[in-house]
């Protein structure tokens, strides 16, 4: 649907510097390039992230009209940033905005719009100062967006009532707020904890600034979160577009030789259909070693076949000792390909949003073990709303650990193809798989929304003067 206006358009994309944000941003940039042959996109990353992407061969896979530009490494390294999460957030807030603004000012081709990650607190102001439309990209579930958007209206986790007579009488209660049925009062207590005081302060800034953006894009799709998406459209003063599921088609696993790739492919090919539990806890937030050991022993007790992507060397050694012919441990894999393999019948996950969307896209039920932030809400969506999995966080002991016995029982239940609950989860997972594929096909909800965004951008409907009236 190329137009004369679009042929002169240039979008500058600025992702938050983290794997879970850069991957979906790149997917959306690919989608934009595919939707309109006249649209050019420049993606701004740090020098370190440019090197990581180059090592994974990503630049060579991008369309000609999507290119990378760099700013200096003004923030802590991606390697080990999880050790000081708050410090990393503060560095991004304080140090990254200025070099991005300098890059915007020196670009040979002026930006007609800036697509900036919602979590970049300075993003909207950077565009507004230059009269450039700002399109905010939210890379987490719409449900979590809506929960944070209403941060000032959250009822207290205990104590007197909040606005509109809302209150939490117990930590087990769901938030008494429309379309937030997958957020519990216990989640609020975590978000309001002293450890998250500074991150939540930045979140408040983010959502205050967001009201000045020209539009917001979501990497979810309407059929998956219709209630939250409808709720957002009612409170935001700007247009919203759902363009997901934005599934990363590239992986950042580093250089692995051909033998390793063939090894896990051959192993998966040799396993019975739906018999393998795929396990990955992401690449950022770490899980306590004591919990990882419980997972390892719980798997051993369940006698279920498993395929584990393990980063912890101690756990890798333990796993290799117990795996025998029922398990395979690797340092990296192409996650979406593994989830889509016929032998994989379940996914033990930390429930990061990218991983959750990939499981939905592949139609695989989830055993959720969330650690932090949106993962808590994602796990509740999986178990309570979509009913395509089991939330292990609800079964922790007083010390916060899920026991090997609990894990063994949950794994056995999820992977038992004769279990009624398991069959129902698989049926619902298959329904969501079909819905996710339909959403991005021609005529689907996300296809229509993406093309509406491109058209609105080309026709100037998202210009600052237009949207500020």
From TrEMBL:
Keywords: Glycosyltransferase, Transferase. One of its GO terms (molecular function) is glycosyltransferase activity. Its EC number is 2.4.1.-. It holds the Pfam family UDPGT. It comes from the Eukaryota. It is an enzyme of class 2 (transferase). This is Glycosyltransferase. The lineage of its organism: Eukaryota, Viridiplantae, Streptophyta, Embryophyta, Tracheophyta.
């Amino acid at each position: 649907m190329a137009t004369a206006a679009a042929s002169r358009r240039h979008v500058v994309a600025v992702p938050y510097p983290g794997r879970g944000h850069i991957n979906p941003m790149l997917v959306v940039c690919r989608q934009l390039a595919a939707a309109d042959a006249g649209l050019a996109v420049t993606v701004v990353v740090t020098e370190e992230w440019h090197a990581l992407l180059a090592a994974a061969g990503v630049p060579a896979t991008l369309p000609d009209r999507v290119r990378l530009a760099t700013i200096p490494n003004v923030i802590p390294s991606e390697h080990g940033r999880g050790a000081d999460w708050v410090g990393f957030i503060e560095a991004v807030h304080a140090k990254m905005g200025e070099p991005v603004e300098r890059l915007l000012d020196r670009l040979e081709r002026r930006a007609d719009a800036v697509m900036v990650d919602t979590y970049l607190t300075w993003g909207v102001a950077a565009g507004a100062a230059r009269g450039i439309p700002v399109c905010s990209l939210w890379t987490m579930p719409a449900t979590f967006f809506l929960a944070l958007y209403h941060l000032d209206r959250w009822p207290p986790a205990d104590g007197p009532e909040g606005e509109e007579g809302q209150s939490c009488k117990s930590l087990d209660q769901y938030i008494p707020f429309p379309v937030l049925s997958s957020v519990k009062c216990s989640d609020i207590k975590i978000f309001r904890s002293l450890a998250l005081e500074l991150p939540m302060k930045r979140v408040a800034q983010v959502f205050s600034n967001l009201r000045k953006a020209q539009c917001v894009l979501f990497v979810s799709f309407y059929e998956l979160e219709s209630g939250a998406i409808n709720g957002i459209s009612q409170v935001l003063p700007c247009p919203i577009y759902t363009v997901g599921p934005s599934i990363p088609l590239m992986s950042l696993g580093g250089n692995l030789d051909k033998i390793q790739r063939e090894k896990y492919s051959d192993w998966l090919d040799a396993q019975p259909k739906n018999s393998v539990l795929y396990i990955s806890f992401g690449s950022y937030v770490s899980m306590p070693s004591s919990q990882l050991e419980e997972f390892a022993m719980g798997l051993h007790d369940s006698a279920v076949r498993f395929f584990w992507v393990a980063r912890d060397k101690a756990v890798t050694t333990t796993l290799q000792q117990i795996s025998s012919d029922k398990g395979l441990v690797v340092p990296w894999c192409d996650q979406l390909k593994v989830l889509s393999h016929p032998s994989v019948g379940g996914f033990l996950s930390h429930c990061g949003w990218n991983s959750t969307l990939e499981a939905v896209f592949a139609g695989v039920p989830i055993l959720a073990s969330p650690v932090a932030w949106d993962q808590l809400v994602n796990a509740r969506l999986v178990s309570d709303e979509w009913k395509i999995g089991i939330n292990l966080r609800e079964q922790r002991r007083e010390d916060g650990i899920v026991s090997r016995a609990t894990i063994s029982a949950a794994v056995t239940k999820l992977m038992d193809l004769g279990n009624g609950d398991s069959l129902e989860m698989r049926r619902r997972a298959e329904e969501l798989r079909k819905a996710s594929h339909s959403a991005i096909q021609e005529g689907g909800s996300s296809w229509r929304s993406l093309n509406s965004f491109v058209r609105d951008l080309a026709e100037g409907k998202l210009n600052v003067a237009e949207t500020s009236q």
